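Trying the structure run again after the queue cleared.
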Amino acid sequence: MYCMGTGDCFLIKFRSGLQDVFTMMIDCGSCRGDKNAFTPYVQDLAGSLTNNTIDLLVVTHEHNDHVNGFDKCFDIFKKLTINEAWFAWTEDPNDPTGAATALKQKQAKIKTGLRKAMMAIKANENALRSGNAPNAYKPRLEDTTAAFVNGLDTLASINLSDTEDEDADKVPLPGMRKIKELLREKGTRIRYLSPGNSFPLSELPGIVFHVLGPPAKRDAIFKDGKEGTDVYNKTMALNDSLMTVNALLNMSGEINPTDLPFSSIYIEETPGDRTSKKPHYYYFASIVKESETAAAPVGKSSDNVISDYRDPKNDWRNIDDDWLNSVGALALRLNSHINNTSLALAFEFTGSGKVLLFPGDAEYGSWESWHLIPEWMTKGRNGKPWAEDLLNRTIFYKVGHHLSYNGTALEKGILMMNDPGLAAMATLDRHRIAKGWTSTMPNKYLMQELIKRTQGKLFIMDEFEVLSPPSATLNPATLGEDVFLSKPLYKQYTITGL
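Done. Tokens:
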């Protein structure tokens, strides 16, 4: 596990005795860091390869914290030999069903809407800060808006290209685009994998690869889990409102009644311009001036009240752009949808029956779908569903989504991992993490369960600011070098006797 920051980069070596016989790499990225920060890790990785060769490269999904290393260290990857590469079926440009293309088009549409909304929100933030109208709420409004913008920037840094060009949303992120182009130039064999497939590799006798996700059905990709039952409880509240993407995409055009956040009876036209197509919105409240209560019954507005709310000094009261705030929910949903397109894999050692689980950042919709693969329903031992059987025999788990509440299913995931040899690694570095994520990563409930189920063999990149750190339960240094190795650039867990 390369410790380049909160993001995935794994190197897996299959050995026969002391000899490396097969090398597999999964993802390369981090949510923070430039080329200079990434280079030492990727150089170390390249230097540890046999004959400068990666036998199998797996790219799980298109998030910057999983693929931007391919862009930042492209010069290093150009010098490597890559024999084979695996992607999820959702990345297949020639998917015969058309579902992969449809998903990409939907994601591009949401990305463009998110980008436009963020530009508008930031413009409003600048206007708020530069406004001279005095009111007691301005400091609070400024702080709230700044926190919201920071949260959006965090999600955008994972999901969007680092550009304001809308056309960039129609093509893959730079890391994904560059690694695909490089693989084509090298003539690398590329496979796009679908759930329910199981197959061996001739180079690795005794090992079978099982493809768990992403789901074949669109509904599963867009499904969220119920807290406390399907996934662990959140440690913060999130806005659950939905966003009308079409309204965002047409922000520069005329506003139609269907785009408004409330009924048309609450719209007042601009005085003196009855032909104006740009209505002025305000809260249609029962608040009227005391001297006008007789002339303006409760629930009806008066010209004076309207005029008062239109006074420039009261611009801060306007709700014209409040509907944009639900873009936060849109950004979170986009993030989850792409996570659920993760290529999730289980490696089974047929001799021992032990399993290594690498689910990318799959969220609940994907985890649940593993248990519903038709051809796997009764394939497991004693008639169990195959996915449950694989989880029962898992001895190594790459923790999904940096120890967040929604990256590991509860009843259909972690509670089925009951092998006493279970160990886990989580790509979380609180020294290098977006500020908005520190309240959710690690999720304390998930972390407690993992420490218990691994008997302390939960390895994260660092324990900075982590309450009840794994080392408080079991000091990794006591495990010995045959089990655990730690170097400045990476952490290594060695599994023997398979």
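Residues 456 and 470 are 6 Å apart (CA to CA). Worth checking whether this holds up in the mutant runs.
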